[in-house]
Design brief:
The structure holds 2 protein chains of 2 kinds. Chain A is α/β, with parallel strands linked by helices. Chain A has 11 helices and 14 strands. Chain A folds into 2 domains: 220 residues, P-loop containing nucleotide triphosphate hydrolases (Rossmann fold); 69 residues, Alpha-Beta Plaits, CATH 3.30.70. Chain B is mainly α. Chain B is built from 11 helices and no strands. The radius of gyration of chain B is 20 Å and the shape is globular. The chains are: A alpha/beta, B mainly alpha. At the A-B interface, helix 1, helix 2, helix 3 and helix 4 of A face helix 1, helix 4 and helix 11 of B.
Amino acid sequence: MDAIEAESLTKYFGELLAVDHVNFRVKKGEIFGFLGPNGAGKTTTIRMLTTLTRPSKGTARVAGYDVLNEPLRAKQHFGVVPEVSNVYDELSVWNNLMFAGEIYGMSRTERRSRSDELLSVLALAEHSDKKARNLSKGLKRKLVLGMALVNSPEILFLDEPSSGLDVTSTRLMRDTIRQLAQRGMTVFLTTHNIEEANLLCDRVAIIVKARIVAIDSPENLKMTLDASRSVEIAFKKDPSGLQDWLKASNRVNAVRKDGDKWKVFTSNPSEFLDSLVNYLERERANLLSINTLGPSLEDVFVSLVTNAGKGG
Amino acid sequence: MDMASSEVRIRPVRYLTAAWAVARKDMRIYYFRPGNLMFGVLFPVFLFFSFAVGRDLPVEILIPGLTAMAMFFGSSSTGAMAIPTERKTKTYERLLVAPIHPISILLGQTLGGFIFGALFASVPIVLGIAWFGMPVASSPVLVLAIALSSFTFSTLGIMFAAIPTESPGDIMMLLNFVRLPLLFVSGIFISLDDVGDIGLVLAAISPLTYSNDLLRWAVGGTSYFGPAIDVLGIILFAIVFLALALLLHERVRKSDRTAGKRKRAKEAASA
């Protein structure tokens, strides 16, 4: 049995088709990313899986339970970190955790022990008595994660988990998600942040205009974009005719200036590098760094979104 | 961390413990909100004195009327404040994704209003006894009147909170369209003996009438309808309000009519 199963999951808001016959399965212990541009249907899908929105058609099973027919049983097995940090601002960090445990039917002793554990794991212990309204955005996000984990769920749904967080908080959030998955938890996350999906996910689904256009591991998806292999070059000082030389080269598909680096897209990096070495010797240019790069998940994402856009 | 799932069996007692958890949370968060204090305490007190001052009314009439009004406004305001506020902050969704039945959520929020109303009802009662020497004909009936009335008025607020809005002001405005006219047909300012046939028909469709009447019986030993009819009337209103609250909240939840859902539909349309 898979942790999450969606079959022909569809949602209409009036006449508007928000999610269109979406199919996917998430294995136990997997980190599954749901990527898509704004309004593609990511949040609506996660809301259907977590019983907050009723599907118009299709079925979804979470932890083996049908979310429409057995919502209470399904809810016992998952935790949710929504995009908005929905903590009770007037309650302290401790009381937020205790309340979360209480509505999951945990005894007072269980709640106290689990809340203590979560405060320690999420580095929130020193903020335990603070009211949630006085927490920074990053700390609130940690508290929401803690509240979602209070009942030790098998499955964790995260909607844009690192949205608006600083670098340190983002890293902590990602490390925590990895640790949870290592301990067997299934993680389903939606994100705009493609690098986050690339770093965290075992598999990703890309949803564009309500439909899933690709599901695979990030590396397999990258393999589908051979034309996006590239060479990244940085010089101490750019040679004067570099741009013209690059444009004239028949081994170069496209050139882009990224900050102080040149990103040269080529379908044959080794041939391009041979010609580049000759050029550098001739121009006596001072090279700072050179990297060959495969297509990024972002390239795959942009390509799929663009193609879906062209398809109407 | 132990990530093994803790299986929680869904038992009838879970409905009640979850409801009690929601009620306690509401008490901590919403009781001292300005809106609640305004509608639960200040408004009925000032309205009452504006009618009572200068009229030579006995304490057995004054205190039951004030108590009924305090409960009517206090109990019905709590859910009407809490639910739209929680929709706005998305904390209502926290309750909806937890393994608790929607009945427990609404029952919990009803309990929050019930306790709030009962607490504020006790203030005029205690003052009436201690300061004005108010008699109490039947303490058990007095307690019963407060308990039944607070619960019923709380369900009224919960029923109105089904309106799919994230603004407490929207619900309060509509609630006041109902509450304010009911004040004047419920025998608080004008005795039911003096309202005529049409007035009596109107009084019969107001839960406040039975609450005020039962309190008068508990305090002074006399009432218009008698305690049995009053108790039945209040219970009947509680059942109707609670049933309608459950029906309307469930219908709104299933129909994607909350402001947040409309926003998501708009986002999808503009993508």
